[in-house]
Design goal:
mainly beta, Jelly Rolls, four-stranded antiparallel sheet, 1 helix, 10 strands
Length: 201
Amino acid sequence: MTERRRARALWLLAAATACDPQVCDDDDRTSDAALHSVAQGSARVSGAGEDLTLRFLATLSGLPELWSAETIREGSVELRVDLSYQSAPVGGDGTTEMPSFDIDFDPPDQDSYWPRSTGPMPRNPYLTRRELFEPCLVDDDAYCCRFGDPECALPVTIRIERVQGAPFPPVVVDWQASVSTRVNSCPEPNRAELTFEQEEP
């Protein structure tokens, strides 16, 4: 278990121990608000080392004044990438050779088990995800929310880099990034809102 996961486990245990069950039940999901936001786009990538950098700002606002151990549940950012040539064979079928792409969040998630490379014969879609909006437990976590803050605005950066160039032709990169979470505002009314905005390069 990594230091971050160990710290989170200890924090959840302490928060659950301190919680008054007459005030709010952390297992009660009836007051959960499911939030979701999507951004998508397409780019043509031709040469070796060519880098497509996607920058977003994910903002979770309207959080309750009193956080519980499970105020923010299942927060994550997910990325889907489809790679194709502009003419047949279009690739992305697991059998057509294509240049490899390195795809990852920046900074990378050290606890992630998702692959960071598409490989020489990718199969669409390439998928990756990382957790988002967890309470801050360590200073170097760029994707966490400070405990008790009513709003949490997090920059999310994704890099998609083509590894090989010629003789492979240009590749069309279609991407879709989505952020989602569930917020429990018990015992307060749920006013949580989620936005996911792409920033200029």
